[in-house]
Fold these 4 entries.
Entry 1:
Amino acid sequence: MVGVADVPPSPPVSDPPGHPSLSSTLAAVLDDLHALSGAIYLLSSREPVLEMTVMAGLPRVFASPWERVSLGSSMPVSDALRERRLVWVGGEVEMAHRYPRIAAVLPYPFCLAALPLATDDTAYGAVFVTWPQTHAPQLSDRERHHLDAACDRLVSRLERAAAEHRPVGPEPDVLPPPAEAEVSDPSGALAAVRTAARLPYGLCGLDLHGRITFANRAAGELLGIPAAELPGALLWAATPWLNDPGYEDRYRAALLTRQVTTFVALRPPGSWLSFRFYPGDDGLSLRIAPSESASRDKRGGRADTVDPTRQVGGRRLVTIGHVLNLAGALTQAVGVEDVVQLIADEIAPAVGSQGLMMLGTHAGRLHILGHRGFPDDAAVERWNGTPLTAPIPSARVLATGAPAFFESPEQLERLYPRRTPTSDGMAAWACLPLIASGRAVGTWVLAYTQPHAFPADERAVLTSLSGLIAQALERALLYDAKHRLAHGLQQALLPPSLPSLPGLETAARYLPATQGMEIGGDFYDVMPTQDRAVAAIGDVQGHNVTAAGLMGQIRTAVRAYTTVGQGPGEVMRSTNRLLIDLRTDLFASCVYLSIDRERERMLLARAGHPPPLLRRPDGRVRVLDLAGGPLLGIQESAVYPTVEVAFPRGAVLLLYTDGLIESPEVDLDDALGELAERLAGDPVEPMDALADRLLGRGAAGGERLDDVALLLLRAV
């Protein structure tokens, strides 16, 4: 908490009878901080989802794409609760960088703060508050104190409600009261109306929802509707030629930014009108006037306006907001599992679904790609392998290309009597085909635990999302196929296991880069000869199929040159000439060594590769920065000198590729020193455990810009 001396202590927690306990606190916070809007989310008791309980300051439709937010998603309120910290977004640019899906739906300049509602051991939810862009770049100490105090009050109320087993449900949204319509002198009010009537331009009052509260006669004449019919109507619904997202966007921008916004629209057949919104806390004033400049530009062919013939019906804000938000989520998916998880985390909670099943097609049958939320996994898995001709909804929607919605088990039973409607424990279903590039790639099924109506706008959203999901799934299937191919190729090129050699213990690890196809040109090998043991490690430039193929050729060549009895320096020279003859324009680094166990010595040759590390029996680590030659594939006449080094019993040699130590934010010498410190450990530590520990920040769960190969040899 941040304490400020001039802020009075928080009042004691009390819930006046019949007064909403959360909405009143939220409204007080907005008033104290001169904030624009805010909302409180509570964590669902049934699933890891945050549900909006109350919103204040703006119509809820502005935040409708985020009515339900997965706790695991990247959103300000979920980040705040999951990480138990304040999340501050200081403006439009920062929002686009950190939360691009919010910026896509609300591309306006505003600031946002999100805070958790939680104790040390219990998570209740989160709250967010927004300000216009005119707010300072950071929260002040006073604002932070007020927010912390409000969160404490909210948590206290939630704790008490939980102790009393009293559910806390959705509460009425808090909007500013309308401006005073009455004046102490009735004649003054009448004079104001008469004054507005005499104006040569149209004047309208709008509430926060966009409904017209007042219109003068000129406004009716310009819009082509009697002024007496305008109050109570939505501007967009009253005038079909204004029923366009581009025009409504200006209304949203005015409310969110508290700045004057304008647009020009064509009233058919040829009248251009200028609209200017003047926002306030309780609504907007709208000025409408003929636009002579737009008319001139139109005659010159330069009018830059939204096409007025486009019309989107009904709850357009909800529909477009959901599609933009959830489409942004799908762009983050890579593999099929990513697509399934994102739909389960982002789309299913947003539309109130509790169950999800994704099915693909192969060889004329349905195959389950993933499922979430069903109470009985076995009941879902039995659909795996079902023929596409089977009389079930998932197969039928693929055959027809038309989605199917079942609002209750009885409705499903009536249409598909052979299917047991309650077999999966759900009570309503939406089955939608996934069609990409004119080809059916699968089906997705949303299931609900209670009967669920599917209104027209929700069906439109789900149908629109089906096309986006289909494209994401098609990309994911292709990625997974390439990944399996790459993984198989990589496994085939690397040794399946290391040979057991007398006097040596060995361990090896390989991790592909996490970018691209997760395949690369790093290799290692260990092989016996008649009187010695030979080991090599190398790195071909790049991490793609070409690099992997060349790596396989180099590894085979090294083995062949070793078999004919060449020493370390000769193997390097022969491999260098081979790489030049192949004319691949790729380079490779390599370390090759031959170990004489009887003499406890080893001969090393190095071609532009990071230096090996040698841990002596006493635990001290030495960097073998020995003389070597250039990278393989650069200079045909290159010479690779050999160096003899003692390798006594108990010593450990570490060979590695540069992916283990190189990182944009870490100095190379510092990284090498850190690696040497990790190597200087327990002398009896098992080799596999040592290999895993040495990977450190290059471990499987981290981000890797390059491949990592590691080979350990211990003399015993």
Entry 2:
Amino acid sequence: MAGLAAQLAKHRATAEGLGSNQQAVKYLGQDFKSLRQECLDSGVLFKDPEFPACPSALGYKDLGPNSPQTQGIIWKRPKELCSSPEFIVAGATRTDICQGGLGDCWLLAAIASLTLNEALLYRVVPRDQSFQKDYAGIFHFQFWQYGEWVEVVIDDRLPTKNGKLLFLHSEANNEFWSALLEKAYAKLNGSYEALSGGSTVEGFEDFTGGISEFFDLKKPPANLYLIIRKALRTGSLVACSIDVSSAAEIEAITSKKLVKSHAYSVTGIEEVDFCGCPEKLIRLRNPWGEVEWTGAWSDNAPEWSFIDPRRKEELDKKAEDGEFWMSFSDFVRQFSRLEICNLSPDSLSSEEVHKWNLVLFNGRWTRGSTAGGCQNYPATYWTNPQFKICLDEVDNSQEDGASGSLCTVLLGLMQKNRRRKKRLGQGMLSIGYAIYKIPRELENHRDVHLSRDFFQGHRPSACSKTYINLREVSDRVQLPPGEYLVVPSTFEPFKDGDFCLRVFTERKAEAMEIGDMVAGNPHEPLPSELDQEDSQFRSLFEKLAGDDLEINANELKDILNGVFSRRKDIDFDGFDINTCREMVSLMDSDGTATLGLLEFKTLWLKMRKYLEIYLEADEDHSGTIDAHEMRTALKKAGFILNDQVQQTIAVRYACSKLCISFNSFVACMIRLETLFKLFRLLDKDKNGTVQLSLAEWLCCALV
């Protein structure tokens, strides 16, 4: 309940600008300026209670409290490691990033690329902090997280062994911005160990809010050199790696001194005149700060002797900082994967730079309601969240080789907070998406999910290349104008997870969530059914009600449980007293807290209708209905509910096996009818909103 309320409050705050880079969300509610001032006033250096300098901050398994790797670790502040520490020495550069004893080369490659763009760097690494002015042992950094910017506060106690930093460090012994940045990112993800293993684009996106594209260098596009050149010119972040075929090859070093399964930053691309012919070169950096390519165009290679000396002086960097040049053709042969994070994102398909339009959706897959799995599971696939894109305007210019009038869409599906769940043994989910052309007769359809019948009769127009356990699956597609449905899903059904879906379009396009409508028109018995002259029913009522001819909640409980417990075709555990009280409250028109003849008959007819709907939804005649079938049952009962409400119902009324008994089904129906009735009474202006005092809210919630 508290979590749902927090989500609603956050949604409203986001609408008012919270989460922008200028108004970042305070992670764990910690405010840098106020905390720093408290420390300055008290004269005590900051100690972060939310990420204390203790074994749990290091990790949970390989870096767990009893691991040999964590023995002898001492947490020290920079002023305990050197006499005159500096936050940044002579500007933040690529050589400030040297890998330590943590397998987060992917993150270090992203940080190294970040230093190439000062504007981006200082958005992540605010400049209002140092070890001199207003030093209080507290620092802060900003990261993009699933559609919003988050400010993370840390203290400057860093893990050391034998007097040296254990993890990320700078070449300069007195420079600490990169080590502190790594700590802040570790805090955001739960621990240092949570950062082990990953894709460089994850760091790229968390530093920029951009969206990434992947290129298979075994099948590179013909204009790959131009794509990379434009990416670097427009400030996009670029990385590459060499795939491995087995775990034994991880971080294996080739004969030419390239490291497999290791993230390299792409830091430059140039063309030189080599013996009268143009030669394309690319510059890479190994975050280890050493182990460099030894092939053609490496630091001491003979090729440098055959180009203009001034050009050689400009390009040939001999410092052993892990950075090196190689020919572009060797690069394509040696490396397997290229990753580019588009910042705006700008189009990388042509030389024209232009901005894209973005729509971002936050969603959730919940077991039993919206976690439908992929197309292999047709019974549940249709219950996944659904989003519509309306593409009306074609691109200004088409890519080489494209034909016809098309609209470019860049989709990114990102699962949230999975690194933090590593500690619990929960890794990344396998995720993907499919895009369907909406036929003309359904183009105005947006109130409720498209049904199972739609997906059985239509194939996707495009889909993600594969379901994969990466944080984000993204791809660029080109589609003819029209309306399209995007269905994001996990590979298997019944997998809980939060996600955000980003839809970038080259031209302005409308995008919306399907099934965002909430409406209720529950079944009401016909006047003829309520005929009070029904002598048989009157006789039954008089027998049940007793001398006062009224039925209270306790009597109702005995009556209903006696009737439905005899049925063999439903799973029935009995109505509890609270459900029966709510039934009475819903039907009670005269405020007696009891039911008269007409009120009881109305309830009885409702119960009969609920039973009919329940049995119809129970397709396998098991006596229960599956939680994902509630969407259909609710619709038949007159309720149209969005994903958020559907998820809440699944959590509240389904058992651990995701089944809903008849008594839980009726309890849900009665509760919904009560809530809709209350809302209509309070919505005096009929504008879909109500305003309540705290006392009024409590009365409504407790009814």
Entry 3:
Amino acid sequence: MDALRARLPLVVFAVSTALLAIGGALWTTDSDAAAEGFWLVGASLGLISSLTSTIAAVRRHRPTVDVIAVLALVGALLVEEFFAGAVVTVMLATGQLLEARAEARAHRELGLLLERSPRTARRRTGGTVAEVPVAEVAVGDRLLVRAGDVVPVDGRLLGPAVLDESALTGEPLPVERPAGETARSGAVNAGDPFDLLATETADASTYAGLVRLVEQAQASTAPFVRMADRLAVLFVPLTLLLAAGSWAFSGDPVRAVAVLVVATPCPLLLAAPIAYISGLSRATKAGVVIKGGATLEQLAAAEIVLFDKTGTLTQGRPKVVDVAVAPGIDATRLVQLAASLDQMSPHVLATSIVAAAHARGLVLEEATGVVEEHGYGLSGRVGDQTVALGKRAWIAPEPAPEWVQRVGRRAALDGSLTVFAAVDGQPAGAFLLEDVVRPDAPRMVHALRQAGIGRVVLVTGDRADTADTIGRIVGTDAVRSECDPAEKLAVIEEERLAGPTIMVGDGVNDAPALAAADVGVALAARGATASSEAADVVLTVDRVDALADAVLIAQRSRRIARQAVWLGMGLSLAAMVIAAIGYLPPAGGAVLQEVIDLLAIGLALRAVLPGRTHTVVLSSEDVAMGRVLRAEHDASLAVVEEIRAVADGLSSPGADLEPARRLLVRLRGDLLPHERADEAQLVPIVARALGPGTTYALTRTHAEIEHLVSRVGRLLEEWPSGPSQPEDLVELRRLLYGLYGVLRLHNAQEEEIAFSLLPAQA
């Protein structure tokens, strides 16, 4: 039945057009009676269709201009203006077909949420384990959760566990839960099997509540009201008054029919849907799927944007941001050894370390004898060396070296995860991992403000200090942290009091908020999620700045739609007056209305042409050069990490200066040539794309890097013979830490200003 209802507008359009065309062909052969018969059938079909839609609108207590079409067709049939009636039918059928396609938005299904819902559980009974339906789990049951399983119900851990809770909190990093803590349904076991004591039934557990939140949010979403319906309150009475006046004044009912025929509001029914369909097409080419014309109009009207953090403003996965090494250890070699071992592990942190090695252009070796020490880490042999990766307590037990303590303090301050490494049984270094900000996020927020968005809010389940830092970097107006899905809904309802809202997220936990906002936007470039089902807009490219393009496209499409509608309706009003005074018969009025329709459609089709967007399209030559420079940029990160390690090693009088001299060779031979290439080649690319005013910061930091390296070189070359003096070490450390800070900031600038312009590689 639903499929038939969806095809009905197309069937009516095809049949009415065929009837009009056949009648026209017969009329040219002087078969007037037969032609009138086909036109009569066409007009009758239009009357049935428009009468049906009018009755449906009345039942919904919704104003509609379809009543004009009903009166026009009834009048045409009564005065035997069958050709005019057939033309009106084709106009109406065309409008209904285009409107159906423009406003056919995808239903907010819960398919993926339900698909992910736990269906069975493994219950321990005595010494056996039996698989039972999750609905049969009772409070107090002891359950086995295997590696990779979804936790079936809320419960208390009977042993330690490593859980991926991203579906519930949005936090991308696995968390370790000790025995006695609560594990929530919907989390995934990312570690070893563990036992769970059920404390809730399936219906009362966390994941079931999340599904209900989405259902409730969907039920509260207001339906879209057509532009035609909003104008019907004024247009219908005006038309009826003019038609009745012309009939009363002239005594000729044909004049009233002519007014009604010309008044048939096809510019309303055609122009807006066509402009919206054109906008949807433009958005799709930009990597944005907008689910219907209703959503496009709401997107154009939005004033407030709310963002989730993880996977939206941040990458959504851990990234190695620094490598700390023990004295005498080469950081590049440590990365190579660790990645060679970790390539055997599917763990998310192992994937990040392998990615860091690939970014540095390192060739991985084969690892042998790989053994996983449950709850601690991974060990094996790479070449002729034994390598171990894992927790600090396993790699560097107390009393830990000073460098290990520094790493711990830094990780605590930055909110970083750490993976420690040992080589041949000795602690060798540590990897610090963070969920970093997307490089295109700050420019996207700026572009949204230029597009008219007045307020940007970060709403996340993450802790306050991390959320505040992200908010400052991307430039949000407010930060709401430590919010669960229900609290996110409350924030949206609060913000909606100030204006229409957009909610942007990428995880299952965002689905209720996406469904509740006026427009929900999901990032689905890394795979479909329940959030994309609940969303009105889906970004299919892994670039959050595509949202700014979507807003600009929506605003332009709405503006063009309104222009076409008002021009078309203005011409229709003029034609109505001419028909009322007797200078336009019904048949001529129907043809003239078709001309007005074509004009309105032509204006509406401008929306398919390219307009102003936020995304900059680089030439193929600039893209190729940018990727070469990006590869050099990634390779230079090892030198940046070495700067800090060398500075840390200068903490005591009489420190060895040989590492600093080796570092100077790398700064002059590797780092400075790369920075000079950036100044000569990357800066012009940015200037061509964004304008010369955007490159001043890059040029200034290039000069500062040259200056600091030069000072380090002069200090080392003029170093007095004999033991190093404390004041000399202090000055060298100051220069190295300063250079490290400038390079970290400069690299962030390049990521945000320059490399974010590069298209994603397949």
Entry 4:
Amino acid sequence: MANLARHTMQIKDMKRASFPLWQEEDWTEKSEQSLKGKKVEHLINHTYEQIKLKPLYFKKEQHCSQFPGVPDYRRGIDSCPGEKQPWRIAQTIHASTVNELKDKMEAAIKVGQSAVSFSVQKDTSYQSIFEAFAGRFPVCVQAKNGHQSKLLSELCSVKDSSDIQGFIATDPLAQLASDGYLEEPVNDVYDELAKNIQMASQKFPELKTILVDTTPYHNGGANAVQEIAISLATAVFHLEELSNRNIPIETILSKYIFRFSVGANFFMEIAKLRAARMLWSEIVKAYGGNTENQKMEISVRTSSFTKTVYDPYVNLLRSSNEAFAAVIGGIQYLHVSPFNELEGVGTEFSERIARNTQLILSEEALICKTHDPAGGSWYIEELTDEIARKGWDLFLQIDDNGGMLSSLVDGEIQSQISKVLDSRKNDSFTRKQSIVGTNMYANLEDQPLKICMQQKTTPEAVAIKIPELKQTRLSEPYETLRRISEKLEKQPVVGVICIGGLKQFKPQADFIEGFLAPGGIAIEKNEGTDSWEQIQKYIESSNHSTYCLCGAYGEFEELGLSIVKEFHTNYPEKRLYLAGLPEAKNEWLQSGVTDFFHRQSNCYDSLSSLLTEMEETTHA
């Protein structure tokens, strides 16, 4: 009985026990212990959105809804996830003929495609495509100015067209930003759009016709805050123009579809989509829109800005990461770019892999079983709030500047995006931002994608022209270096002079090999020596125009300086670089070193100069 009473008391004590409530300072102290006294503030990262990413996040009072499907819609627009797939697989299908398009569409649908999405070609009728598929699946088509009227008229041939869902939508401002011009006056463009909206509202009540497309800005290098602000400014410009043409506000709002490109920063992209929904609901509310029209429908493309020509299979990983972020962020339509999309069109293999990426997310990762899996994360919720605040502030700045069209015409949008692009490029040049297979871990044996360098031309007569917003990719500057090296008569090689034993020179030699490879430059090493005579034999036998000295320079400074002097005396026509950045760099330069390759170097500038020197030597 005594043992039973003792055990009963122990159980009661266990029930009354509780874990200590750790405060913010406790977590900070514990973290700094693991950092061996280093302050956690040293782990703060700064993003291109001017947001500080903290190493620790804590619960704070949240003013947002705790449930999906209700304002402020950060958690999504659907309150009943159930067992259905919450997004449509809308791979854009390319074909040279309508018959080919029909065959490819039918084949894609059999293996998972769930929306009718294709690229529109001028002077081509898609009536047969609509008749075959539009009654069965949502339509997901971006129409340029002038194409929308024709596509909508062809859609009229479909039986029960009033049930057709999806979008055949156009964004005149996005086309202006992408092309740099419009052939027709803005008023004429919106007159046509207004007619299409009125017709669609009668015949296709479920079909969206007004597009807000931020893809051109994303591909220009814009950050997440800029994309959100631009999307809001564009949507408001559409709304004002169309309401001035006597279309009811509720009719206009019911026709919106938003398109975003999703890039590489996983959590930032999730927060971007959530913040965009929040802000759009507030704008619609301000215009008197009902709760249904406050729900932002989103179509997403994985980014082309992040894709590379070299080591193209890494594009599979990039697209998978971007698709995952898009789905977590809560979307309605998704196109995953094939890994070789930069060649113009994918192959049957690459298109299948791209489509299967979505199927894996749905059927194997089972993301559709959980509604808003990011909800409640202190990090993502705070990031969402901060992007929303900054996005709203920038939207107001654009509005104060006269709105979206004025900001494009005077180049203000382009200028702001250009500054972000310069920061992105500089980080890639110094390799703070790694591009796997391009500026890091480049493989000289890679076969690049074959892309056509198309020159953009502007018609002689245009109604409006704006400063250029160049559509680019982050990897392009390095790809240009690779093409330069490939055009040389023979592959450029730098001879690496290794000093000391393997343990002394290997780290530096490996670094140099990785540093030069992004420019298509190979290395050739000697076996390591402390003898100038052996080094001279290696130079005579290899006879390169450029060499790099490698070793633990802190241990061989006197020997290294003497080698540099000998090199400069005996081979004044050749160039000698040093791996690393010694404290007494002036002494090395005075002894004959051309420059230093080290971890803080601007890799792109170094390689560009080196290839120019090698090209001049070859021609000489």
